[in-house]
Each structure stands twice: as structure tokens, then as C-alpha cells.
């Protein structure tokens, strides 16, 4: 069961990455783990000259809310902390504007919905 969930998560993250790359973003890193938080995807948006931290959320059924609804205040704080740690570890990006996006995936096969600038650091 856990292996199935991990495989589903990896497949959805790969699909989200392809979707974002097809939209013009460049992949920098994936599954970046820090104590207290993880970044699913780290991308660069050349059109906005911005670093993009992407949370990918899969829901088989959206009856209880979509993926973006599950990115609550606690999750946003953990993402912000992980982003700060990423920037500390990669000083070349430290001065770049940043944003937080969410890619929702739902159904079988998964349908993707990209929410740009889903939340801001001020919201955390």
C-alpha cells in the first residue's frame, strides 16, 4: 500500500514537472528534504525571472476539497521554512524573487491544475 502511494506520488510529480516545463519553466530540483519540510519541485520561471517552489497535491476524489485546500497554514509554514533553507544552501538564488505555486492533480488518469502564486510568504 505504501509503495503504491509512493509510486503514485512520484508519477504525479513527474507529470507536474513535465507540465511546468512545457509551460516554459526550468527544473532545478525535486524532492528536496530538510528537517521540518520538503519541496516537491523547485523551478525557475524565466518569464518572471523568479524561483518557483511548487507543492504537488494529488487527490483521487475531490469530494472533500481539492489539493490546494489541503495546503493549510501549517503546510505553508513548512514550505516557507524549506524554501528558506534551500535559499541558504543555494546562495546563487538567494536574491531572486520567489513564489509558491501548487499543482493539483485529481482523478484517474490525473488531471492537472496549476495555481500560480497560490500563496505568499506573508500568508504563513
Automatic annotation (TrEMBL):
Source organism, top-level taxon: Bacteria
Name listed for the protein in its UniProt record: UPF0102 protein ABB22_09700
Which family does the UniProt entry place this protein in?
Answer: Belongs to the UPF0102 family.
Organism taxonomic ancestry: Bacteria, Pseudomonadati, Pseudomonadota, Gammaproteobacteria, Lysobacterales
Amino acid at each position: 500500500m505504501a509503495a503504491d502511494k509512493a509510486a503514485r506520488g512520484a508519477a504525479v510529480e513527474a507529470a507536474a514537472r513535465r507540465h511546468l516545463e512545457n509551460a516554459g519553466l526550468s527544473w532545478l530540483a525535486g524532492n528536496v528534504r530538510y528537517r521540518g519540510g520538503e519541496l516537491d519541485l523547485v523551478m525557475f520561471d524565466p518569464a518572471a525571472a523568479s524561483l518557483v517552489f511548487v507543492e504537488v497535491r494529488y487527490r483521487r476524489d475531490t469530494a472533500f476539497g481539492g489539493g490546494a485546500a489541503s495546503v493549510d497554514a501549517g503546510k505553508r509554514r513548512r514550505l516557507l521554512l524549506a524554501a528558506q533553507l534551500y535559499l541558504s544552501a543555494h546562495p546563487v538564488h538567494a536574491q531572486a524573487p520567489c513564489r509558491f505555486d501548487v499543482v493539483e492533480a485529481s482523478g484517474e488518469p490525473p488531471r492537472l491544475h496549476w495555481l500560480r502564486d497560490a500563496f505568499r510568504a506573508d500568508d504563513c
